[in-house]
Amino acid sequence: MDAHLRIDFLVEERIILELKSVETVLPVFEAQLLTYLKLVNIRLGFLINFNVPLIKHGIKRIIR
Fold first, then answer.
1. Triad 11, 19, 46: Cα angle to 5°
2. Is residue 39 part of a domain?
3. pTM metric for this prediction
4. pLDDT in tens, 27-49
5. Fewer Cβ close by (within 10 Å): the C or N end of the chain?
6. Does residue 46 form part of some domain?
7. CB-based contacts of 47-55 (< 8 A; 24+ apart in sequence)
8. Domain range holding 32?
9. Number of structural domains the chain divides into
């Protein structure tokens, strides 16, 4: 199986940003971010959904 995985943003090789613009943040998005964190051995990631009235309500911090 050929999986094409692409990290949206890698900040200073320490933080992964996974960007979305969706009505509902699904558990699969968190699983995707966790997979990226494990594959590149990084502890901190943010799942950011831009489809919210106030951006702070669309940010979820994930620590592995």
1. 55
2. yes
3. 0.90
4. 999 999 999 999 999 999 999 99
5. N
6. yes
7. 47/18, 47/20, 48/17, 48/18, 48/19, 48/20, 49/20, 49/21, 49/22, 49/25, 50/19, 50/20, 50/21, 51/20, 51/21, 51/22, 51/23
8. 9-63
9. 1
